[in-house]
Amino acid sequence: MMQWVDDMPLGAVRAIGLVEVLGAIGLVVPPLVGILPWLSLAAAVGLFAVQLGAAVVHLRRHDTIWMNLALAVAAAIVAWLSTIWL
Predict the structure, then answer these.
(1) Complete DSSP assignment for the chain
(2) Which end of the chain lies in a sparser environment, N or C, as judged by fewer CB atoms within 10 Å?
(3) Model pLDDT, residue 3
(4) From CA 71, how far away is CA 54, in angstroms rounded?
(5) Is residue 85 part of a domain?
(6) What range defines the domain where residue 70 resides?
(7) How far apart are alpha carbons 39 and 73 in whole angstroms?
């Protein structure tokens, strides 16, 4: 299902996966523990950037980007909400 993985170096695929996992942790953990809540804003902005990059990769491959756009909008909403809650 993810043919783009075949065109990317393994290190890049692993790095993208690591960034996404760290971003997810950054969205959830700081608000839960109440320590460094600004990290959730940084994580949301980072995940927004990841989705924009993913959309570029998918556009170059002539794939659909609706999921990337939906996730980018969700990350932008979380970033906005985290500025209200800070």
Answers:
(1) --THHHHS-HHHHHHHHHHHHHHHHHHHHHHHHTS-THHHHHHHHHHHHHHHHHHHHHHHTT---HHHHHHHHHHHHHHHHHHHH-
(2) N
(3) 78
(4) 10
(5) yes
(6) 35-86
(7) 19
Give 3: exposed, middle or buried? Use CB within 10 Å, 0-12, 13-18, 19+: exposed
What is the average pLDDT across 59-69? 92
Model confidence at 46, in pLDDT bands (50, 70, 90)? Answer: very high
Q: Is residue 18 part of a domain?
A: no
- The tokens for 62 are 């002539």
How confident is residue 59, by pLDDT bands cut at 50, 70 and 90?
Answer: very high
pTM (predicted TM-score): 0.87
Q: Is residue 27 part of a domain?
A: no
**Residue keyed to tokens 């609706």:** 66
* Residue 75 is assigned to a structural domain of this protein: yes
The one-letter code for the residue type at 50 is: V
Q: Please give the Cα distance from 75 to 86 (Å, whole number).
A: 16
Output the CA torsion sign for 28, 29, 33, 38: negative
